[in-house]
Amino acid sequence: MSASISGGTPQLNGKVERTHRSDGKKFYQLLSYKGDVDLEAKLDDWERFYNFHRPHGAHNGKTPYEALREKL
Questions:
Q1: Residue 67 and residue 72: Cα distance in Å, rounded?
Q2: Residue 47 per-residue DSSP state
Q3: pLDDT in tens, 1-30
Q4: Is 63 in contact with 54 (CB distance < 8 Å)?
Q5: How far is CA 69 from the centre of its chain?
Q6: Measured in Å, how far apart are the chain's first and last C-alpha atoms?
């Protein structure tokens, strides 16, 4: 799957770059690459943890899901 960001939206680009940095520091360090690794399943697990269970400083200790629910 490929995603693109429209021109003239630097605030979105920064958020994408930040999530790539977080993924690089946290998700990829968890992988051992020993044997057959289902990366798609591991990424699904990571995204679920990241969005629903991991507190974020940018959201005052709330998960992204909690922060979104407050805005809706």
A1: 9
A2: H
A3: 445 556 566 666 666 777 777 777 777 777
A4: yes
A5: 17
A6: 27
